[in-house]
């Protein structure tokens, strides 16, 4: 990064968190009494960040494919905070499977509860999966889109990480179409630090996987589609994922 890019990235990062509080407070009277208000608030914040990312640090956000309008399981790759915002903004009624610790965070935690996000206590392992399924099935937003990051954490571009069983369990239990999502956003917005690099950040909704597959077959197909799609997006942006994979393997 040049000194100017570093300064702009710093200013961009600094404004993100005060604006989260400002927008959260502005929408609070509506959000407290209505999921529509909570969703409108979160979309407003997502759109604010994507807009400021464009003119402050040169990150242009692009959505490809067709986001589902009805009930569906969204199984996405996760590289940075930006893909969370882009996926949520693209879906009409999205909500997340998320780690329990997020509920204790200011603003984000309160709005996650209002949206009906499903919190997972990862320390409980097998019990966490059962609780996740129960909470997802008990939700009053059956027609919405339930978003899970299939690898369970943010993954550095080009690094291969295992796909967790949670996505497979939800696919079986909810008996819904699963829409895989590929991303390349970690190239512009890394998982840690304030580095922000100019480029086109893309999320792509891929060919849906219809219900009815065995869990192992589903997870294999999901991984193939998401990894191939994400690798293609990263190569399009000028990044070859092969060296990073080789480095990790070595």
How do you describe this structure in short?
With 250 residues, the protein is α/β, with parallel strands linked by helices. 50% of the residues lie in helices and 15% in strands. Helix 4 links the parallel strand 3 and strand 4.
Q: Which residues sit in consecutive blocks of at least 5 with pLDDT less than 50?
A: 246-250
The first-to-last residue Cα distance is 28 Å
Radius of gyration: 18 Å
Shape descriptor: globular
- List the quaternary state of the chains: single chain
How many helices? The count is 8
Strand fraction: 15-25%
Major beta sheet, strand line-up:
1-7-6-2-5-3-4
Helix-strand category: alpha/beta
Helix content: 40-55%
| Major β-sheet annotation | 7 strands, mixed
Order of helices and strands: HHEEHEHEHEHEEHH
Round the mean pLDDT to the nearest integer and report it: 90
Number of strands: 7
Give an overview of the whole structure.
- The chain has 250 residues and is α/β, with parallel strands linked by helices.
- 50% of the residues lie in helices and 15% in strands.
- It is built from eight helices and seven strands.
- A seven-stranded mixed sheet has the order 1-7-6-2-5-3-4, sandwiched between helices.
- The protein starts with a helix and ends with a helix.
């Amino acid at each position: 990064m040049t000194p100017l890019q570093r300064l702009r990235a710093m200013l961009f990062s600094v404004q993100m968190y005060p604006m989260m509080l400002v927008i959260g407070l502005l929408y609070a009277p509506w959000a407290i009494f209505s999921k529509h208000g909570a969703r409108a608030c979160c979309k407003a914040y997502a759109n604010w960040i994507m807009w400021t990312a464009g003119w402050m640090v040169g990150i242009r956000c692009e959505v490809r494919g067709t986001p589902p309008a009805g009930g569906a399981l969204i199984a996405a790759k996760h590289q940075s905070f930006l893909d969370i915002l882009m996926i949520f903004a693209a879906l009409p009624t999205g909500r997340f499977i998320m780690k329990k610790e997020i509920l204790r965070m200011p603003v984000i935690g309160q709005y996650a509860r209002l949206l009906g996000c499903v919190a997972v206590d990862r320390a409980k392992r097998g019990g966490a999966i059962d609780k996740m399924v129960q909470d997802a099935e008990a939700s009053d937003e059956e027609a919405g889109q339930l978003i899970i990051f299939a690898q369970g954490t943010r993954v550095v571009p080009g690094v291969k990480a295992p796909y967790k069983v949670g996505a497979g369990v939800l696919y079986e239990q909810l008996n819904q179409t699963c829409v895989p999502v590929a991303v390349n956003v970690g190239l512009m917005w890394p998982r840690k630090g304030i580095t922000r690099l100019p480029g086109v950040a893309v999320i792509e909704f891929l060919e849906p996987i219809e219900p009815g597959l065995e869990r192992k077959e589903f997870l294999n197909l999901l991984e193939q589609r998401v990894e191939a799609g994400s690798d293609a997006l990263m190569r399009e942006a000028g990044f070859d994922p092969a060296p990073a994979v080789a480095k990790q393997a070595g």
